[in-house]
Amino acid sequence: MLPTRSAAWNGFQALKSRLIGRLAAFSGEQSHASGRPSQLENDADLLEFDLRDIFSASHIIADIPVVTYSNMEQTVQNFLHYLNTIVNRDFINSHSDSFRGRSSSLSERGSLPCDIKILSQQYRQLGALAELLDTRSSGYFNLVAGPGSKLLFELPEGYERGDILEATRKWRELIEELAVQSRHSLPDQPVGLLDHSIYYAEETGKNQPEPQGLQKRASVIVNSIFKEFKQQRCAEGHELKLRVSNEWYAGSNQKPLDILLSCCLDEEFWQDTQCTTTTTTTFHRNGISSRKRSEAVCSAIQQANARHEKLYFLVTENGLFDISSERPSTPAMLKNLTGPTLSDLLEQRAFRRITPRDYLNGTACDIVGSRDKAAIALCLARCLMDFFDEEVDLASYSWNSEKIWFLPDTQSRQKSGPFYVSLRPASGLTESNPDLLRLFGPGNPILLSFARLLLEIEGGEKLSMAIHPTNTANTQKWGQMCGFVDVAAEKAGDGNYLKAVEGCLYLHMSLPRVQDGMSTTEAKELVRQAIYEKIVHNLELLVHPPSSNSKRKWQETSTIHNHRAEKRPFVSPQRSRTLQRPRFVSPEIMIPDPHLPNGAELERPVVGQHTSDVPVRTTGRPASRDDFERAILCALPEEFDAMSLLIDEFWDEFGDTFNRADGDTNTYTTGRIGKLDAVLVLLPSMGTVSAASAAASLRSSYTQLKLVLVTGVCAGVPNPETGVEILLGDVIISKTVIQYDRGRQYADGFQIRDTVEDNLGRPAKNIRNLLAMFGTYHARERLEKRAAAFLGNLQSTAGLKKRGEKYRYPGTSHDNLFKPGYQHKHHSATTCECAHHHEASDRVCNESRRLSCDELGCGSEHLVSRERLKDRRKQEADGKIMEAQAPSIFLGRIGSGDKVLKSGVDRDRLASQHELFAFEMEATGVWDEVPCILVKAVCDYGDSHKNKLWQNFSAATAAATTKALLERYIQTDKPAKSYSVC
C-alpha cells in the first residue's frame, strides 16, 4: 500500500519538508552547562539525535506491505501526537505578529498549502509550527537541545518524557526498516517500445522529476481560447486537439502548448497553433507580424490558413492577449487527420499484452509496452487534474478512445509521434458549481469515464459501457466496475495501475464533507489534491520508479545503527539498550500432533500465519454436523462478506463434506472462529418469512446448535429512553425482540398484539446468563476492546484481498442525524414542487428518494448536536482513528418487522412506545426456531435520509463484535472423541 493513504504520514512529510536544510549544527556538549549533564539534558540530547535522523534522512519508502500498514499508521500517529504536545509555544508566540497576520490572510483566501491544512486538522501545534517555518524562508534551528532560543520543541520534566522518547524511537526504527525493505523490493525498470521522449520528462540526475505543485497549465490557455470563441458567438463551431506532454508539469512554466484548432469554415482543416502564457502585458516577436488584439480568432485562423502560416497565441491572466504568425518550414495546416485514434489502435490490438509469438513473428515492436501504457495514462491523468473543474466536455467527449489521436510528428519525422486529446466546450457554459464536492460521488461521469479509459489502455480492448451525465444513473455501472477491479486485483495483484483506477472509483471517499463557508477555490484545491494522490501519483510510480542506486545491505545498515548509538553523548547503559533493533518473533499457533493421545496439542511456531493477537488452537476438522454448536445467519451479502473475513479457517475450502438434511435448501459455509467451529448461512432474501424458513432448515441439518447469532446491520434509535447516544457503527445486542408491526389497526391507531401467545419467547437460560454478564461494565468494556481489535484485523485482511476501501471508517463528517420531522426532499423551489411541502407527513417526489442529501441540499442547520460525536471528532483531530472507529456496544430491545423504516417521526414514536434501541427485519422469523442472539450494527437512523454509505463498515463492526462475543462463549464439556486431521 502507498504510505500516502495515511493522513498521519502526509502530515509527517509536511513537517519534514519544512525542516530539511533548516537545522543548525549540533553536538551534545554545546547544550550543557559546565559539569555533568542532568537526566533531562541527557534525554534531550538523545531526542535531538533521533529527531535529526528522522527529519534529515532521505528515506525512500515507495510501498508498505498491507500487514505492516496498520502498525505504521499507529506508530506515526503516536509520534506526531507526542510531538504535538511539546511544540515550543514561546517560539511561535515570539513571531506572532508577522506570522499570524499572514496566516489569517492566507486562511481567509484558502491559500494555505494543502499539506499544512492536513497536518493542522489533526495536530494543531505542529500545523502552526509548519506554517511558521513556511513563512520564514531563512534561519537555522535546533529541535529540542542546543544553545540559544531557537528551539522548536521543549522536553517536559514529567513522566511523559519517557513516552515521548519511546514513541520517537519506535518511529525512527520503523521508517529505517521500511526504507530498507522498500529498497530491496524495487522492481527493475521495464523497457519501453515507443519514442520515450514524447511521454517522459527529461531525467537529469534524478529518476523522478521533482513535483512542481498541482498547478493548472493547459486549462488556463484552453479556457481562454474557448472564451474567445464564445464572445464571437462561434463556440459550437470549434474544437481543439491538445498535444499532451508531461513537460507542462515537470519542466519550465514557459513551456509552450501545441494545439490544433478546427476551422469553422472547413471542418477538414486544422490550424497548427502554439500557445504561451505570460504575466507581462506586452508582447514582441522579432520578424513576426503582430496583429492587434481586436482581431477575431476565427479571422486569424482563416488568414493563417490562406497563407500557410503557424499561429502563436499569447495568454495572460486576463485572457487571450495577442495573436501573431510566421511562415513555418513545414505545413501549418493539416487536412483530414491521418493518424490513428486510440480506438483504432485498440481494434488493431496494438495495446494487447506481448507474447512470445509476437517476438518470433517480428511484430513485438508494434505492440505498446506496459511502461508506455502507464506513460500515456499519466499524461491523461495530469490532464484530468488540470481540466476537471473547467467547462470542458470531458465525460462524453474527451475521455473517449475515439477522441485521442496519435498523429505523425511533422518536425522529427518519427513514425511514433505525439498524441492529442480532443477538447470542446461543455454544452451551455455556466459558472463554476459552488458545491463541487457534492458532485464527486459514486458514478461521477468524469471519473467513471476516465476509469473506463484507463482500463481500456491497460487491457487493450474497448469497453462497451455507456456513461450517463448524472451520477445516479451511473450507480449500477460504477458498482460493476468496482467489482471488476476487485477481481482483477485479486487475480493479478494490486499494482499501482489498478490503484490509479481504484482512485477514480473511490475518489469521493477521500474528499471531506461540504462545510458552510467553504469557497469554490478551496473545494477545487481539495479535489485536485485528491486526484493527484489517488490517481496521478500511482501512475508516476510506474513511469518513474524510485531509484535503487542507494541500496545497502541489511548488515551495513545494522552497523550504522550501532555506530550511531555509540556516538550519542551521555547515554546511560540502560538507555542505550533501547536503541537496539527489535527482534521479530513469529506468533505461536497450537497444532495437533497425531501421535499424541486424545488429540493432545504440541506447541510449534509457524512462520507467517497470524489472524489475531492471541495464540490460536486448532483441534482438527469436525467429524460431522453434530459437532457444530454455533451458527451465524446473515441477511445481506455485505454482512456475509464481512463475517467471512474473520473466519480463521474454512472447513469447506475444497468442497463441502458435511452435506445437509433431506428437504433443507440452505447453502452452508463451515469453518473455525477462534477455537469454536461455526456454520454460516446467507439468507436468500430479507424479511421474516425468509429468515423463518432458513432457520427451520438449519435446525433440521444441524441438530446440536446451542447458539445462533443473527449478525448484520440495522436502523438505530439515536436517543433511546435510557438516555444514551447511539452513533453509526455502534452495535446493539438483543436482550429481547419486539414484533412491532403485528397487531390490529383501529380507527384511532395501531395496537400491537401483546398477549402471552403472541409475544416472542424468552431466550434460553444459557443465553440469558451470557447476556446478563454483558450487562456489567467490566464485561462490556472487555467486549468492546476485543471487538475493536477484531475490526482492525478485518480491515487488514480486507486490504490483503484488495477490498480495503470497502471497510474504511467513513468518519464523523458523514454521521449526520437530522431532526425527526425534517424531510429528505428537494429544498429548492425551482427544482421540484415537493420543496413547498414542509410537514413530515407531506408527500415527496420519487426522484428525491434516489438522491443523496448532498444532491438535494439538506441543510446542516437541521442537524442534531451530539456529545459523543464531538468526542469522536476530537479523536479524529488528534489522529486517533483507531479509537474513533471503535464501536460502542449496547444491550437492549430490538424491534423487528417486515418493512423498512424510513421515518424519523415513526422511529421515535415506536422506540418510545416499546423502549427500542434498533429496528431490523429478520429476528421474528428466527427467534422461536433456534436459540439466538441478535448482533446488529447501526448503519442508518431509520429516517428519510437513510443511505448505504455506512453499510459495509457497520457490517464489519457487527462481524467483529460477533467474533468477540463467541470468544466469551463458554463451551460445555463433551466426551472425548477422535478427529480427522487434515
From TrEMBL:
GO molecular function: catalytic activity
UniProt record, GO biological process: nucleoside metabolic process
Domain (DUF7580): residue spans on this chain: 212-544
Domain Nucleoside phosphorylase, chain residue ranges per copy: 630-746
InterPro entries: DUF7580 (IPR056002), NLR-like (IPR053137), Nucleoside_phosphorylase_d (IPR000845), Nucleoside_phosphorylase_sf (IPR035994)
Family matches, as PANTHER family: AAA+ ATPASE DOMAIN-CONTAINING PROTEIN-RELATED (PTHR46082:SF6), ATP/GTP-BINDING PROTEIN-RELATED (PTHR46082)
Protein name: Nucleoside phosphorylase
